[in-house]
Design brief:
Elements (H helix, E strand, L loop, with lengths): L1 H18 L8 H4 L4 E5 L7 E6 L7 E5 L4 E4 L7 E2 L8 E6 L8 E5 L14 E4 L7 E4 L6 E7 L2 E9 L11 E5 L7 E4 L5 E8 L7 E11 L2 E4 L5 E5 L7 E2 L9 E8 L7 E7 L4 E5 L7 E4 L2 H4 L8 E3 L7 E3 L5 E3 L7 E2 L7 E6 L7 E5 L2 E5 L7 E2 L8 E6 L6 E6 L4 E5 L12 E4 L3 E6 L5 E6 L4 E6 L4 E4 L19 E3 L7 E4 L3 E4 L7 E2 L17 E2 L13 E6 L7 E5 L4 E4 L7 E2 L12 E7 L7 E6 L8 E6 L7 E2 L9 E6 L7 E5 L2 E5 L7 E3 L8 E7 L4 E6 L4 E4 L3 H4 L3 H4 L3 E3 L5 E3 L23 E7 L8 E6 L5 E5 L6 E7 L27 E9 L2 E11 L7 H41 L4 H18 L15 H14 L6 H26 L1 H11 L10 H6 L1
Parallel strand pairs: 16-43, 60-66
Antiparallel strand pairs: 1-58, 2-3, 3-4, 4-5, 6-7, 7-8, 8-9, 10-11, 11-12, 12-13, 14-15, 15-16, 15-17, 17-18, 19-20, 20-21, 21-22, 23-24, 24-25, 25-26, 27-28, 28-29, 29-30, 31-32, 32-33, 33-34, 35-36, 36-37, 37-38, 39-40, 40-41, 41-42, 44-45, 45-46, 46-47, 48-49, 49-50, 50-51, 52-53, 53-54, ...
Protein name: WD40/YVTN/BNR-like repeat-containing protein
Pfam family, one: Sortilin-Vps10
InterPro entries: Sialidase_sf, Sortilin_N, WD40/YVTN_repeat-like_dom_sf, Xyloglucanase_GH74
């Protein structure tokens, strides 16, 4: 007995242990069909890296973006669609296989215009189906691929030029060759770990001849060096086996970046733009590189070589060439003279000529893609490329709320989270120039703070008065010159509405909206003079201010205690004050595992406990691509790493959930990651979310929306993340669980929008429907499963299609029941498709899974901004119901006509003796039906006059879709139509007593099948 009891206890214990085993949801199981939506904007677009056109089809063009992936046009560049969203969004080079251009495309990732804010790539990709699907080929550590050349006579022979790492040494640099289509690769040209391939081109007539421009370069967080003794131009005439410098005529001394291009119509003509201290400019060779001659040193050709190093030659005329630059330069005399391209966004990176007509050109800029039909004299912008590169975003509490943010080279803006017809270009408002960064709304007043690169200007914009004031803190006599980061931090106090903070090497505070400033800290950086070099650029001096270092980068005031302020610096310091800035403590030495001087990119002060904060460190400027995410609960005395192997890419930003302290959102260079257990497990969010760099995340407290500012795909929103707050182990052990949902508001908003054309980008509005969210422990595969909405008495109002996936499922309900049964007729009756809206109240959600039914409740509320009274709502619902019933009455009446009509027509064909009785019935029935529904026409040019069904459906649709009580005209029209309906019913009764009675009698006498008519209840169920 004792032994049996012991075994039983062990079995029970094992069972409880299995039941209590931790369940971890990841990916699709965790997020279900919770989806991101893209709102752009596209009116300022973003940086384009590479353009490629199809060699035989002038309608197909590809564009590679700095942080927005690869886009394809099939209509000659009028519009583009993304084709690379699942992979690294920073693009270096695109190549189309000339032997299979409809299918085979290669993409090398990693931007090659090496400014300080560039993203990185993760290798080489190939598509065999025109970009629908992609396979990674390798080069995982290449970081930046600048060139892909394919032998036009042999698709298996491919050359790849790797520019390599920007921030450190890289053995991956050089020219690689494959002869088996990418299965194996050999490095055929390599100089050293500091020198990469800037350009690699192939002779179009002889694929054994290649030219390679090698570039020695290095960027640090505080400077840039372009050039050195290893920068050179090489040529191979034996398919890459041997390489020789071709510098005859080149300037003396060290060289920098070299652009190179071959004239497709005459490969002996080669152009290069050389960065050098002396005699820099455009060089031309007419003997395939054997000798060179300097033609032109115009500023437009030599400005910022690290950013503009692309020459493109007209495919038909070797004397027409274009050079990228601030404004783009075009020559029509072989490079002797140049003029600017037409008006467009500055900073031109790539150009392609149309394959058939050189007057048609496509240009990639910092502001998107432009087209020209007149050889570059005038330019037209492509309006549907939402590639905007946000550095920072914030949200306000308006309804609908607005999103504010600053863009790379495209100023600062704000726009709505929703707008009638979708979020259009005209919905966005400008609030700053240049490179825009932090943009913040005053908590109470219609005042917006914004800044321009390096705090050159910090604006306070009174929107109501349309007044702007520069409120930037300035150096005070006798004190140190101020150092502001290119992305200088601004923060608004949650405790004092007029209080704002800004960081130089000091923390500055203003309690009067920026009119006066006070320093509340000493220099909180390392103040390392070696990282404060005023000169930068190497061979070409480049003083943009983007390399200003040893600065404060992030400021976080505790939302719980205004005296607690966290500061992070770009040179690795984490500082805290607990007394409003009187004293500061450096907590950096307490953080284990982070290399010294790693950029403190973001600090998030917790809303749950004033001693808790999160710190994100970004080491990529030290060539360290690992993520660093830490949490402290004791004011920085100890720190815990939250990084797991689930996180991909170096991290930039973290957002703590306002209600669930274990729910965190992390932005990395390759997308969004979410944890529901405080960092033990992370999942990448991929539902309509590309693998783009997420620079900043904010939560809108009223709507629970997660708002992301991406550096390449604009603003991306995940609407209402509140279900994620409710996930816990107790819930996950259930077979089925319904999530609690806040009351759903039946919006009554109207307004006009949707004025954009099909070639313009329009951001998605949030879903307006109710969301029914539930969890399934296992995927439902067998047996019955249905989802219904019922009233509180259990009467089913509508059937919905249930989600059956393991994990989280989301089903949408539009607050409507079933549409009425519509009378059969020739035309469409769009109003008849309208389902009546249910009134506000509480409804049952019934999920039947097998033999078991699970129940939940959902509450609907009227729009709190509504001006409609309860009496008006009741009137609208009453008339809607009456018209609904009229629609179904008419449908049944027409059905009652159609059944004997069909039987009479059949009888007329089968029995000549029945001609009289059948004809009388047909004539009477057809005459009545023609007065009830349209029975002829084609719904367009041969449209018949509307009859009762069409007019009744229009009236029903109008009344059912409105919220207001019906107008007097609608009520009068209802009376007219119901009189016609009653008249039709009376007429049918008369026909039934006369012509149909005779027909019925004849069928019975001849023992023929009778007229079959279902009762109304059965008819409506069909």
């Amino acid at each position: 007995m004792y032994r049996k009891l012991t075994i039983a206890c062990m079995v029970i214990a094992m069972s409880l242990s299995i039941q209590a085993q931790e369940i971890v949801l990841k990916g699709k199981e965790l997020f279900g069909n919770l989806e991101a939506r893209h709102i752009g904007p596209a009116l300022m677009s973003g940086r384009i890296i590479d353009l490629q056109n199809h060699p035989t089809n002038d309608r197909i063009i590809y564009a590679g973006a700095a942080g927005g992936g690869v886009w394809k046009s099939t209509n000659g560049g009028a519009s583009f669609s993304p084709i690379f969203d699942k992979h690294a969004q920073s693009i270096g080079a695109i190549a189309i296989d000339p032997n299979d251009p409809d299918n085979t495309i290669w993409v090398g990732t990693g931007e090659i215009w090496t400014r300080n804010s560039v993203s990185i790539g993760d290798g080489l990709y190939k598509s065999n189906d025109g970009g629908a699907n992609w396979k990674k080929i390798g080069f995982d550590k290449s970081e930046r691929i600048s060139s892909i050349q394919i032998n036009p006579k042999n698709s298996n022979e491919i050359y790849v030029g790797v520019l390599g790492a920007l921030w450190g040494d890289s053995e991956e640099r050089g020219v690689y060759k494959t002869t088996d289509g990418g299965k194996t690769w050999n490095k055929v040209l390599y100089i050293d770990a500091k020198t990469g391939i800037n350009d690699l081109v192939m002779d179009p007539d002889n694929p054994a001849i290649l030219y390679a421009a090698m570039w020695e370069f290095r960027r640090t967080a505080w400077g840039f060096n372009s050039g050195g003794p290893n920068s050179a131009l090489y040529k191979s005439t034996d398919s890459g086996k041997t390489w020789n410098k071709i510098h005859n005529g080149f300037p003396e001394g060290d060289l920098g970046r070299l652009a190179i291009a071959i004239a497709p119509s005459n490969p002996s003509i080669i152009y290069t733009v050389i960065e050098s201290k002396k005699d820099k400019g455009l060089y031309r060779s007419d003997d395939a590189g054997a000798s060179w001659k300097l033609l032109n040193g115009d500023f437009g050709l030599v400005v910022r070589p690290f950013y503009f190093s692309r020459i493109v030659v007209d495919p038909k005329n070797p004397d027409i060439l274009v050079k990228g630059g601030l404004f783009g330069s075009i020559s029509r005399d072989g490079g002797k003279t140049f003029k600017n391209l037409g008006n467009m966004h500055a900073d031109i990176h790539d150009i392609v000529f149309d394959i058939h007509n050189s007057d048609r050109m496509y240009v990639g800029t910092d502001g998107g893609v432009y087209r020209s039909w007149d050889g570059g004299a005038t330019m037209d912008m492509v309006d549907n490329l939402p590639l905007s590169q946000f550095y920072h975003i914030s949200v306000d509490n308006q309804e609908p709320y607005n999103i504010y943010g600053g863009l790379q080279d495209n100023g600062s803006w704000y726009g709505p989270s929703t707008s009638p017809g979708g979020i259009e270009a005209r919905d966005w408002k400008s609030v700053g120039y240049g490179d825009g960064f932090r943009v913040l709304k005053h908590p109470k007043e219609h005042i917006i703070y914004s800044e321009m690169q390096g705090a050159q200007s910090v604006w306070r914009y009174d929107v109501t008065k349309n007044k702007v004031k520069d409120i930037k803190p300035l150096q005070i006599k006798g004190e140190a010159e101020l150092r502001f980061n290119w992305n200088a931090p601004i923060a608004i106090s949650e405790h004092q509405a007029d209080r704002i903070y800004i960081g130089s090497q000091f923390v500055h505070i203003s309690n009067d909206k920026g009119d006066t400033w006070t320093k509340i800290s000493p220099d909180l950086t390392t103040n390392d003079p070696a990282k404060q070099d005023k000169e930068s650029g190497g061979i070409s001096t480049d003083k943009s201010g983007a390399e200003t270092h040893t600065t404060i980068f992030t400021i976080a005031e505790s939302p719980i205690d205004e005296n607690i302020i966290w500061v992070g610096t770009d040179d690795g310091n984490v500082q805290i004050t607990k007394d409003g800035g009187k004293t500061w403590q450096n907590k950096t030495s307490n953080i284990q595992g982070v290399p010294a001087h790693t950029w403190v990119y973001h600090i998030e002060a917790s809303v749950h406990h004033k001693g808790t904060a999160y710190a994100v460190f970004d080491g990529h400027t030290q060539n360290d691509m690992k993520p660093y995410v830490y949490k402290t609960t004791d004011y920085g005395d100890t720190w815990t790493s939250l990084v797991t192997d689930d996180i991909v890419g170096f991290a930039r930003n973290i957002q703590e959930d306002y209600e669930n302290k274990d729910l965190l959102y992390l932005g990395t260079e390759f997308g969004l990651f979410i944890t529901i257990d405080g960092g033990k497990h992370w999942s990448r969010f991929t539902n309509n979310m590309p693998a783009t760099a997420v620079h900043f995340i904010d939560l809108q407290k009223k709507t629970n929306d997660l708002v992301m500012g991406t550096h390449g795909r604009g603003i991306i929103i995940i609407d209402d993340i509140s279900p994620l707050r409710q996930i816990n182990q107790s819930m996950l052990q259930k077979n089925v669980h319904f999530f609690d949902s806040k009351p759903m508001v039946i919006k009554e908003e109207g307004g006009f929008g949707g004025g954009s054309t099909e070639l313009q980008f329009v951001g998605d509005n949030p879903p307006s429907n109710a969301q029914i969210i539930y969890y399934l422990k296992k995927r439902h595969t067998f047996g019955k499963m249905k989802l219904e909405i019922a009233d509180m008495n259990g009467n089913v109002l509508v059937d919905l299609t249930p989600g059956k996936s393991k994990g989280i499922n989301i089903v949408s309900w539009n607050y409507r029941t079933k549409a009425p049964k519509v009378a059969a007729g020739k035309t469409f009756t769009f109003g008849g498709f309208t389902a009546p809206r249910v009134p506000a109240g509480t409804y049952k959600v019934l999920l039947t899974k097998g033999k078991k039914t699970y129940e939940s409740l959902i509450t609907l509320q009227n729009d709190p901004t509504s001006i409609i009274t309860s009496e008006e709502r009741i009137a609208q619902q009453k008339v809607t119901t009456a018209l609904f019933n009229d629609m179904e009455t008419l449908a049944y009446l027409v059905y009652q006509i159609d059944q004997p009509l069909q039987r009479a027509r059949q009888l007329l064909k089968e029995d000549p003796a029945a001609k009289k009785v059948a004809t009388q019935a047909i004539t009477a029935l057809e005459e009545l039906k023609n007065s009830l529904v349209v029975t002829s026409g084609d719904n367009y040019v041969n449209e018949a006059e509307p009859q009762l069904r069409e007019k009744l459906a229009d009236l029903y649709g109008d009344v059912a879709n409105q919220f207001e009580k019906p107008s007097a005209a609608q009520l009068e029209n209802k009376e007219v139509l119901e009189t016609r309906l009653k008249k039709g019913s009376t007429a049918f009764e008369t026909i039934s007593k006369k012509q149909l009675a005779k027909l019925t009698k004849y069928l019975a006498k001849k023992q023929l099948p009778p007229i079959e008519v279902s009762n109304k209840t059965d008819f409506l169920k069909k």
